[in-house]
Amino acid sequence: MTSASVRHGIVAGIDGSPGAVNAARWAASAARKFDEPLRLTHVLRGQPDFSEGGAVTDEEMFDRHVRTEGAKLVEEAENAIRDDHTDVTIERVFVSGTTATALVELSKTARILSLGQAGTTEMQSVFLGSDTIRVVNRAHCPVTVFRGSSDHATTDTRPIVVGIDGSKLSELATGHAFEFAAFLGVPLVAVHTWNEHASLGGYSEARRFTDWGPYEEHENALLSECLAGWTEKYPEVEVTRSVQRSGPMKALLEHSAEAQLVVVGSHGRSPFMASIVGSTSQSLIHHAQCPVMVCREG
């Protein structure tokens, strides 16, 4: 996207799940808009240990079985895509290794990486881990995690929503959101939130007697400052500004109900750290009502 000069191709991870197929359909829709090839990618499972009495033929049979099953899953995904997109260039890619490591490696040269929704709850991600979260936290390109119903699998006229907090990662997400909205020809909703705790440096009795007008003006000015350069670069994008006295997760989850995509930045916190200090991106990955694009510096 903003680094399109050095990145090429939309990578969709295929694991046989319905979510992965919808993610591949979404990726095909994006590939068509961006005029990029779609790379349907399946990670081949590692071989079991045949060291104790196993024959070489056992390893060969296992390898053939894994490749045959992988090819079948990719073919099924391609067939689902071809129903809607006959003009997209599709490449089949098979790589070996652990799922997260292999996809992170591919993200070094990809324009976008598209994955099915996390197969774990937030709590399970903390204690058991999740390949989707691992990829999102380490990827070198934007990662879109499919959420929502099957009608989110193709781009449409619904707006793009971007969360803005004034940080460097937020600016990165804003750039991707504007570029995506421009390519799709859809409106952009810029969401900025604030609360009393952040404004007063903590909860106190003073908040009951505070005139919040100046604080609201300041937050509106901050959002305008964050958008200024991007609205000049993409004058064709219709922008709606939403400054809410709320938490970012709550506000973005609400906006996701009417959006086709929510775009946010991420610090790449582990699920455990996210459970302690909070992570808007990981909460959206588990609860949003539409696909979520997570951007971080790779």
From TrEMBL:
UniProt keyword Transmembrane helix present: no
A Pfam family hit: Usp
Keyword terms, alphabetized: ATP-binding, Nucleotide-binding
Domain UspA residues, every copy: 10-147, 158-296
Family under the similarity heading: Belongs to the universal stress protein A family.
Matching PANTHER family: STRESS RESPONSE PROTEIN NHAX, UNIVERSAL STRESS PROTEIN RV2623
Stated name of the protein: Universal stress protein
Originating organism: Rhodococcus globerulus
Organism phylogeny: Bacteria, Bacillati, Actinomycetota, Actinomycetes, Mycobacteriales
